[in-house]
Amino acid sequence: MARSSSEVPAARLPVEKLERAQALEELARLAGEIAHHDTLYYQNDAPEISDADYDALRRRNDAIEARFPDLVRDDSPSRRVGAAAADGFGKIRHRVAMLSLANAFADEDVAEFVQRIRRFLGLEAGASVEMTAEPKIDGLSISLRYEKGKLIEAATRGDGTEGENVTANVRTISSIPQRLVGADVPAVIDVRGEIYMSHADFAKLNAAQEAAGGKVFANPRNAAAGSLRQLDSRITASRPLGFFAYGWGEAPKLPAETQSGVVAAFARWGLPTNSEMKVCDGAEALLAYYRAIGARRATLGYDIDGVVYKLNRLDLQQRMGFVSRAPRWAIAHKFPAEKAMTVLRDIEIQVGRTGALTPVAKLAPVTVGGVVVSNATLHNEDEIRRKDVRPGDTVVVQRAGDVIPQIVGVVVEKRPLDSAPYQFPHVCPACGSHAVRELDEKSGEADVVRRCTGGLICPAQRVERLKHFVSRNAFDIEGLGEKSVQVFYEGGFIQSPPDIFTLEARDRAGEVAIANLEGWGEQSVRKLFAAIDQRRRVALDRFIFALGIRHVGETTARVLARAYGDAGEFRRAMIAASDRDGEAWQELNNIDGIGKVVASAIVEFFAEPANVDVVDKLLAEVSPEPLEAIAATSPVSGKTVVFTGSLVRLTRSEAKAQAERLGAKVSGSVSKKTDIVIAGADAGSKLKKAAELGVTVMSEDEWIALIGD
DNA sequence: ACCCCTCGAGTTCT
DNA sequence: CTCGAGGGGT
């Protein structure tokens, strides 16, 4: 990368002679200067100074910070690693995660959703359930933090846990108040909402962009996103962005007891809210609302991709809680997907980390719902046969849920005369091993997926396992994404996960030379090493998830982390569990959510010496930390409890969620490790077993009294 | 022996 | 996001 004119700052005082005030001033200047060069280097690919000069700047910054540790700035270059510097925005951790919503497409889904709520809350079939209904704005979700009524911070959704700090840009949006007014404005509240661009403003902006020879945006959503993510706030200020407040994150004190009440308070405080929001009762009313909004979709003046329904009463919302990453008390009812026709050029076979062969349709690029689509999954062998999709076919493509493209069907009339049904390969395209469809033990039926039998021999599987290891919910190493992992694997630098953590040592020893790779300068290598070091301490559930054991995803990994508490103990127990008559195997199977298949998969993983070797080498490099106790002080924390019989005051899932929130381990079966059995009506064998083992048994009421609810 | 719900695995594009 | 399969209850 060519570095042209060098601009070494004028000679300055040696660090040890600096006065405090001078240091303060210089750190500020260095932060700005280094950020500037980072932008040029990473974003524009057009550095102004040499690597050596850049390093000199950073070294001076570090030296001054070392002498005046209390002067280290929040935006200090030494604190920024990898992506944060690369994209110019700092990161903000959401105090309460920004979740996604479950989706409904058909009317039945909505009816089911309402039914599910009634069932969960123990209401009768026709009972009244107030819900809010509002348009789902197609923009960007944002979290605005107001303290004492003043706008303090604004963050994008990001991965839901951590977003980008876009405070400076959000301050330029005139529809977002800098200050909330009203007697009931709380001391602290994260207001959540959607930033969007109206149709009229979008048209105006694009006309202006075109006239100026600038970039024309594909749709209002992209225009809004592009405007918000400007590094120069002045550009954001010039863009007409709108905002609707519809929810909240951390909010210790809410101004009302219903969803609609809180949103009404938002409006009183000066926040823009959507005037289309209504309170409805019952599935029919929701569907009527959906159809009415759908009919007016084009005249609303802004893009929407559906309607959102939320349970109105906040106490009921709380009772229902969450499933994985979405609330159980809300759902997005999406408008039907847009369709398009295109030619399927070829079918490519991809190999996943478990060896699954997945066919992907390579399409002639076509615009569907505002984005250009050129790939679509065909899922599996049977799916191809069912739809009789062949290379050369003209196919109908749609974006399901407006996101993932899928092939709806083939236009048979347009099929070339010489086409023949597609033959799914029986060997792995990556390693040539046999690819088979495993047979189910009991039914003898073939698995839907065809899998490469190569295991660790297969380069594709090895790379995929590495990608999984560094992925967002696993080790999440900044600057080491899918692409770089691939490059490092091919370069022979990283063969398996532990190699990641020995990379720096080997680089120093001259065994590998990352800086020789294209696109890897001295600075990016340094940042990568720093990012890797940051992950030497990692939560145990992430560690277990990262191993990539079959059938062990995020949730199961968390369950295992909770159950064993410590990586060494987990390793020991899983090896011991290979004895299917032993206690360790029993204990594993007793964990709620783990059955024979999952237990076997874990034991088989640890029966493979190569896998144990990976775990051991990893444990030499990283320290997995136990999960934070959820509520160390509750009377049931650390206790193993089993629910049995039919509960009256709580539903089963409520009871389980609540117990876990209080730090209890909920198990599915009674063993001598069980502390409490909560027996509802008609409890059967589990109650008997509890009596045999002398385990404490209590009624539902006693349990509720114990946890003090 | 079924049935329902939840979880895992794989995929797209910006 | 969707599909398939595992887990657990009836």
Helix content: 25-40%
Model regions low in confidence, pLDDT < 50 over at least 5 residues: 1-11, 41-45, 80-87
CATH fold field value of the largest domain: D-amino Acid Aminotransferase, Chain A, domain 1
**Mind telling me the CATH superfamily name of the largest domain?**
DNA ligase/mRNA capping enzyme
Secondary structure category: alpha+beta
CATH architecture of the largest domain: 2-Layer Sandwich
C-alpha Rg, in Å? 29 Å
If you average the pLDDT, what whole number results?
82
Major sheet: order of its strands? 2-13-10-3-9
Number of discrete helical segments: 25
| Count of all domains | 6
- By CATH reckoning, the class of the largest domain would read Alpha Beta
What characterizes the major β-sheet? 5 strands, mixed
Counted beta strands: 26
